[in-house]
Specification:
CATH architecture of the largest domain in chain A: Orthogonal Bundle
Number of domains of chain A: 2
Order of helices and strands of chain C: EHEHEHHEHHEHHEHEHEH
Number of helices of chain A: 8
Chains: A mainly alpha (about 130), B alpha/beta (about 675), C alpha/beta (about 260)
Largest interface: A-C, 38 and 49 residues
CATH topology of the largest domain in chain C: Rossmann fold
Strand content of chain A: under 5%
Oligomer: heterotrimer
Structural class of chain A: mainly alpha
Distance between the termini of chain A: 24 Å
Helix content of chain A: 40-55%
CATH class of the largest domain in chain C: Alpha Beta
Shape of chain A: globular
Radius of gyration of chain A: 15 Å
Distance between the termini of chain C: 22 Å
CATH architecture of the largest domain in chain C: 3-Layer(aba) Sandwich
CATH topology of the largest domain in chain A: Fumarate Reductase Iron-sulfur Protein, Chain B, domain 2
Structural class of chain C: alpha/beta
Chain lengths: ~130, ~675, ~260
């Protein structure tokens, strides 16, 4: 990717998330409190640092973006109001907004259902995984 | 017509690199009344001052304008130089072309134009300047220290050493403050009580020092050299003169369930108590919130047992009026209560404690007699986790925390970790840190000893969640260097919470008209050059009330504040600021607006007789200004609807002349 | 006491109990819940990105409709509550979202965040009052040891939800006291159950849900209450802990009021 294109992608992530990555003091509290740590390749503090370094492509290619539970714990507990979850959401959106890049398709749904599963789960998953 | 000399300073390249100083000298030389105009490399230097003095003499100058740095820097220098040539010092005006021009502009043409405009305004003002003579006021040779912690103690001892009287007002029943609660001190690990209590005894024995314990400042009036302070001596229901501190009352009192504040609520005390063995003054105090006699009128046991008849349930608060020449704020701090950070479990888990609570748990005079036992089951903890920066270094918009580094936590945590490993080598100790900050003599060496000699596990990362399950604290944390999320089963978690100024500081600052920052720390007159003085004359700062600091730094600052106080009290008279308000009685309509806005209480109203038309006499209520109290802030001149109030040296006419000069293009 | 009521889609299907017991209880408490006409699904998760507009519109529609009816809007499902309250905050504070959402909707009167959104629990605490509730309890659940499960959505982000202290909340504990039971405070009560990850990664949801229930069990809870259908699902299906039941808080409310 050309430098300009990279910069454009980065700007888009920063704009869509509204996150100021420079506020981060690298304390790691977000990662310390993240319930999805074990499932993630890149962890919340790394999202912040890698976005700051412009390494969006690595993040976009990582399954980590679909592992965030959107539980807002990192946002609530960050002493610097950095809000890593918003960055993860922005990177995920940048991926699934591309044509044909949905992470979840309606065809997959029937196999995932069980009789107690609330609609809420499917709706949430579509919001998080597809456009 | 004035004969005005104008002097443009280059300040090396500070001004000259951005302002065309020659052009400024030339332009201002053409202003009406200016008979001499020049520029020079350093006006504040000996030769610069000589240049000015020579010009005053040779050109018979009656007014001087110096275009240079802020008047806060060298106004006094130039006024003194002018005075030596027989010119009234208040005939010298400064146009600030450094801070207000060269340092903030880049474009030379723009900066030069602005410098000329500011110079022209100063010239316009000098045309209306009148010689002013400063009065004098006497100095009360006694100081007040508010707060009896190590800062207040050191300041008081040093002032007393110089031969001046000092009063200490302490809101608690004893002096000693936070240091009295601390077990050991870094970086030498000597016992805090062993080095503090001799100083407390010195205070008690010093004839020059009077302690008002269990007392608070009620009101402050007056000004530098002449403060009048009302002190509320809170009723302790014990006659301080009679009480011998024998302690029999504190043993016999049947109300045993009072949370012991000195031990951070980790154990209980009686309703009548002496906070700790070495308390000064060693006098009992009744806690009226818990005393059965005070609440129900039935008990009286302490009175029965007191051998000297010191107990007096009818005692009332007492107001004492005292006069002082100087006041020192030494109001100290408290560690923040981390109840809002309950992801770390403080409010819901007994074995999550603050660092100051840990001090009590390690102290021989504490609730566990110095054996480290955790609060829930009184068992010895085998794994201890320390969490740094709880509530410190937060974003300014984070409502829970403080934006500053609390400065002392890195060092006291290293101390705690080391002491635990020393006493209980079977204990694993983890410290979660963001940065380890150890600037200070022998500080980094101390921290390294904790790691290298004592085997404390320092982990870069933070704790995100603490959950108590079956007596174990499950600590979930990040280890940033290894990229892991750690899960540690701990027995005790210690939170290094942010330092915050004592809650009383805000109201005291208001009484003293001393300024504070957004965090409620007292502001110093100059961050670098006047660090122990408040911008309000006669008010000095000692200890953490000015900003987080450790004991060595606090003691240094306390002595520095004392030196400043001694310098003030050593004077017999103080020169007053002649730029004070004055009221034109003929214009005053008696509305009291000025009296209401005056922050110093310098304005009073009186009925006066005036001649009316046809030989009648009118009685009118008019304002008058006490020149000794007025600080020249000018609030009254703005509030006055009839234009009767004016400020000498900054008269309405002078200010309008400056504005006119600026607007005239 | 009359409120507009937004049930949300799950309450019409898999979580009928959450809704039914709420309605029965309200009748007993003299609270009128008027279901909004023509509400649509809120989307179940709040769209965090600044440029998401369309995904917020159904919430705005519900909010505007409550405003037009002149009533406060009560929600019950934690997820709906989270989405609608956060969108409402955007409509109040974010000029860009406000402008663009109104451009889409073309309402008679543009919506600018006028509606007051209350969770059912807030309605109980702040409008009915827990003391009043206590007086109306006919069948106090004495002796029951109940753990409140807040999960993530009821409390966070606390600046917007403004319902309770996000780390040390008391609203459900106070509710539990009001219905005569004993609240059990446990550390994991405000941690995530796994949420929608159950679709992708059952194992992860199991880990999360088990951690919550183990924590509640260790503190002696016999029951855990929730306001969220997905939490209930995860805790029951993916968690499953012997001796700890998981129910909607409205079920216990109805039971205590004697209308179950």
């Amino acid at each position: 990717m050309s430098h300009d294109k990279k910069q454009a992608v980065l700007d888009e992530i920063l704009r869509a998330s509204g996150v100021d990555v420079r506020k981060c003091m690298r304390c790691g509290k977000c990662t310390a409190t993240c319930p999805a740590f074990d499932e993630m390749e890149y962890h919340p503090h790394q999202f912040v640092y890698m976005v700051e370094k412009g390494e969006i492509d690595k993040l976009a290619a990582s399954p980590s973006i679909f592992k965030c539970l959107s539980c807002f714990a990192c946002m609530e507990r960050c002493p610097r109001q950095v809000e890593p979850a918003k960055l993860i959401e922005a990177v995920r959106l940048s991926v699934i907004r591309a044509k044909g890049a949905n992470h979840l398709t309606p065809e997959q749904i029937p196999a995932l259902l069980d009789e107690d599963l609330p609609q809420q789960a499917i709706t949430s998953a579509f919001r998080k995984y597809s456009k | 017509m004035q004969r005005i000399g104008v002097f443009i300073c280059h300040c090396g390249t500070n001004i000259a690199a951005t302002v065309d100083v020659k052009a400024v000298a030339e332009a201002l030389g053409r202003e009406p009344g200016v008979v001499f105009s020049t520029d020079y490399q350093y006006m504040c230097s000996e030769s610069g001052q000589t240049l000015m003095r020579d010009a005053i003499r040779e050109h018979k100058l009656t007014g001087v304008v110096v275009c240079s740095c802020s008047p806060r820097m060298h106004e006094a220098t130039f006024r003194k130089a002018a005075e030596k040539e027989g010119l009234n010092p208040y005939m010298v005006e400064i146009a600030n072309i450094r801070e207000q021009v060269s340092w903030i502009h880049k474009d030379i043409a723009e900066a030069t134009e602005k410098a000329i405009i500011l110079g022209r305004a100063a010239i316009a003002k000098v045309h209306l300047n009148k010689p002013l003579t400063a009065g004098e006021s006497p100095v009360t040779k006694r100081a007040l220290v508010i707060g009896g912690g190590i800062a207040g103690i050191q300041t008081a001892l040093d002032i007393a050493e110089a031969g001046f009287e000092v009063d200490i007002v302490e809101k608690e029943p004893t002096i000693g403050g936070k240091m009295a609660q601390i077990d050991k001190t870094f970086p030498t690990l000597d016992c805090a009580a062993c080095i503090l209590t001799p100083k407390m005894v010195d205070v008690a024995q010093n004839e020059k020092i009077r302690i008002f314990s269990y007392s608070e400042v009620e009101s402050v009036k007056g000004f530098v050299g002449n403060f009048k302070v009302a002190i509320r001596k809170k009723a302790r229901y014990v006659d301080e003169e009679k009480c011998t501190g024998c302690g029999i009352c504190t043993e016999k009192c049947p109300q045993k369930k009072v949370p012991n504040a000195f031990n951070m609520g980790l154990d209980t005390r009686r309703a009548i108590y002496i906070p700790f063995a070495q308390a000064v003054p060693k006098v009992a105090t009744i806690d009226a919130n818990y005393c059965t006699m005070m609440k129900t009128g039935k008990c009286g046991i302490c009175q029965k047992f007191c051998g000297v008849g010191a107990i007096d349930y009818t005692q009332k608060d007492q107001i004492v009026e005292r006069e002082y020449g100087a006041i020192v704020a030494a109001t100290g701090f408290n560690p923040m209560k981390p109840t809002q950070y309950d992801e770390l479990g403080y409010a819901t888990c007994e074995d999550v404690v603050t660092s100051l609570e840990l001090e009590r748990l390690m102290n021989a005079a504490g609730p566990t007699a110095g054996t480290l036992l955790r609060p829930s089951d009184k068992k010895h903890p085998h794994t201890v986790v320390f969490v740094q920066c709880v509530g410190s270094r937060c974003d300014a918009e984070n409502e829970k925390g403080k934006p500053y580094c609390s400065k002392i936590c890195c060092m006291y945590t290293a101390k705690h970790a080391m002491l635990i490993r020393e006493k209980y080598p079977d204990t694993e100790v983890y410290v979660f840190y963001i940065d380890v900050r150890t600037p200070g003599k022998n500080f980094d060496e101390f921290y390294r000893r904790a790691v290298e000699q004592y085997g404390v596990h320092y982990i870069k990362g933070q704790v995100g969640k603490v959950v108590e399950e079956n007596g174990t604290l499950k600590v979930q944390a990040s280890d940033l260097l290894s990229g892991e999320q750690l899960h540690i089963d701990a027995d005790l978690v210690v939170l290094a919470t942010a330092v915050e100024p004592d809650k009383s500081a805000r109201s005291i600052a208001t009484m003293l008209t001393a300024s504070m920052d957004t965090n409620d720390f007292f502001t110093e007159a100059h961050a670098k050059l006047r660090p122990v003085e408040s911008p309000t004359a006669g008010i000095f700062l000692s200890g953490v009330c000015q900003g987080p600091k450790d004991i060595p730094e606090t003691v240094s600052q306390a002595s520095a504040a004392a030196a400043k106080v001694i310098g003030l009290l050593a004077k017999d008279k103080l020169t007053c600021n002649p730029c004070v308000a004055e009221s034109d009685e003929m214009l005053c309509n008696g509305c009291s607006s000025c009296e209401k806005v005056c922050p110093y209480g310098a304005i009073t109203y009186a009925d006066k007789e005036f001649r009316g038309p046809n030989r009648t006499t009118l009685i009118r209520r008019v304002a008058s200004v006490n020149a000794a109290v007025c600080q020249g802030c000018g609030a009254c001149t703005v509030a006055c609807p009839s234009g009767a109030m004016d400020l000498k040296g900054f008269s309405n006419r002078q200010i309008m002349a400056e504005v006119d000069a600026i607007c005239k293009m | 006491m009359k409120f507009s009521y937004y049930p949300g889609c799950t309450l019409k299907t898999k979580a009928k109990d959450l809704d039914r017991y709420a309605r029965l209880s309200c009748a007993a408490l003299g609270v009128e819940l008027a279901e909004l006409p023509e509400w649509q699904c809120c989307g179940a998760v709040y769209p965090m990105a600044k440029d998401e507009i369309a995904t917020k519109l159904s919430s705005v529609r519900a909010l505007a409709s409550a405003r037009d009816l002149g009533t406060d809007l009560v929600t019950l499902c934690s997820a709906c509550h989270n989405v609608i309250k956060q969108v409402n905050n955007d409509m109040r504070t974010n000029a860009d979202v406000q402008l663009r959402a109104n451009n889409y909707l073309k309402l008679d009167t543009p919506y600018v965040g006028e509606t007051n959104v209350l969770h059912f629990l807030e309605m109980l605490r702040d409008r009915v009052g827990f003391d009043e509730l206590k007086k109306k309890v006919t069948n106090p659940l004495t002796g029951r040891k109940i753990g409140a499960y807040y999960g993530c959505l009821l409390l966070r982000p606390s600046k917007v939800m403004a319902m309770d202290d996000a780390e040390n909340p008391t609203i459900i504990e106070d509710f539990i006291r009001a219905i005569g039971a004993t609240p059990v405070v446990y550390g994991m009560r405000n941690e995530c159950c796994g949420g929608y990850i159950t679709l992708e990664d059952k194992e992860s949801a199991q880990k999360r849900s088990n951690a919550v229930l183990e924590s509640a069990k260790a503190k002696g809870a016999d029951t855990v209450v929730t306001a969220c259908p997905l939490c209930l699902y995860n805790l029951k299906k993916n968690g499953g802990c012997d001796g700890v039941g998981v129910v909607y808080f409205t079920e216990l409310l109805a039971e205590a009021l004697g209308v179950k």
